[in-house]
TrEMBL record, chains A, B:
Function according to Swiss-Prot or TrEMBL: Involved in 1,2-propanediol (1,2-PD) degradation by catalyzing the conversion of propanoyl-CoA to propanoyl-phosphate.
EC identifiers of the protein: 2.3.1.222
Matches recorded under PANTHER family: PHOSPHATE PROPANOYLTRANSFERASE
Localization terms from the record: Bacterial microcompartment
A GO BP annotation: 1,2-propanediol catabolic process
Any one Pfam family match given in the protein's UniProt record, by short name: PTAC
Reported cofactor(s): Zn(2+)
NCBIfam families: PRK15070.1
Catalysed reactions, as listed in the record: propanoyl-CoA + phosphate = propanoyl phosphate + CoA
Entry similarity comment: Belongs to the PduL family.
Protein name: Phosphate propanoyltransferase
GO function term, MF aspect, one: acyltransferase activity, transferring groups other than amino-acyl groups
Length: 211, 211
């Protein structure tokens, strides 16, 4: 795989060279608010011994939207029918949009998945109980999932930040898009509903890496 | 004022020249959902002979947020406390975000203010009655208000579409930003709440025209 320092060197030597493959479309995946639950929190919310019921497969292999939903409560308001995504994870993580933060009255930071230190709190309510989320609520930073072959074709590396161009009447260029490379990933540009609305994007719309 | 064809000629002759003044910050104005009402609709919603009560001056001279609010109803849901902006206008126009469209169950097109042909419908309910909006609901296209002096300093002309760059963790570049020049306007980059959330922008944050 081409590493970051090599890319930088090429760019320094040949500033006119287009490093990213700008002809390769990347399908968009719009993430509505959702929660990943630990096995312990699944039991606390839905009952002892409870396991999630897959409802719809997601594009990322092995991931699914579960039948189960929860209510999320903040100091200013609540949001019902927040979808649970499966399978269970080691740590519960709630992902919301900035619009949701206003509704709930919380200040969730923009973070990569898993970077929960000093993130926001909320109360989560299920049919069998509630769970107090402590530093477990984030706004997901825009990112692209891809495997190693995609990364080589797109001339990008894991952790690199790229710019992503959208087209149409609400076209824009997203800066600060994090590339996440893993052999288990399907190629997909993940944004939240605020970002999708701003750009006029829907799931499966093609976007392009740009300089 | 520099006209568009002259700008194009300059750009053709001197492609390296920066035509827009990229050092001049433009303050952001985030528009939440709101409605401009005709005098007749003010009476239909609030009672015979009723006039709006100014509540807070807006940055655009002569414009104000009124004390009055209305409820807006669509086929899928309703939104209460939608702010009325004054003064009264010849034609009632409701401006919503795309997120609001999902809540209401309507499909409002992205349009410049006043371009209402084939736009969306909604029901508007006030304390004294209701009004059926027919082809009077839009998502406002991102735009910059400015006067002639601002336009000369920014090297842009009325009706021109420019790109606007924002900074920070959610930085992006908005394409398709319409310049609107009028001596009555104060310099202000108008976006809706979806766009503000996507870019991490708040009212009065500075943005910049870019190539």
């Amino acid at each position: 795989m081409i590493n970051q320092s090599l890319l930088v060197k090429i760019k320094e030597k040949l500033p006119g060279v287009c490093l990213a493959n700008q002809a390769m479309g990347i399908p968009t995946g719009v993430s509505n608010r959702h929660v990943h639950l630990s096995a312990a929190d699944i039991e606390a919310l839905f009952g002892q011994g409870y396991t999630l019921t897959p409802f719809k497969d997601l594009k990322q292999p092995g991931q699914y939207a579960a039948k189960e939903c929860v209510m999320v409560v903040g100091s200013k308001g609540s949001i019902s029918k927040v979808r649970v995504l499966g399978p269970a994870r080691p740590t519960t993580q709630l992902e919301v949009s900035k619009a949701d933060c206003y509704t709930l009255g919380i200040k969730a930071p923009v973070r990569e998945s898993g970077a929960l230190s000093n993130s926001a709190d909320a109360l989560m309510v299920g049919p069998a109980g509630h769970v107090h989320l402590k530093s477990q609520v984030i706004c997901a930073q825009r990112h692209i999932h891809m495997n190693g072959l995609d990364a080589r074709m797109l001339n990008v590396v894991n952790g690199q930040k790229v710019r992503v161009k959208t087209e149409g009447q609400c076209g824009l260029v997203f800066d600060e898009v994090v590339v996440r490379v893993n052999e288990a990933y399907a190629l997909e540009f993940h944004i939240d509903t605020d970002e999708a609305n701003a750009a006029g994007l829907r799931s499966n719309d093609s976007v392009f890496i740009t300089d």
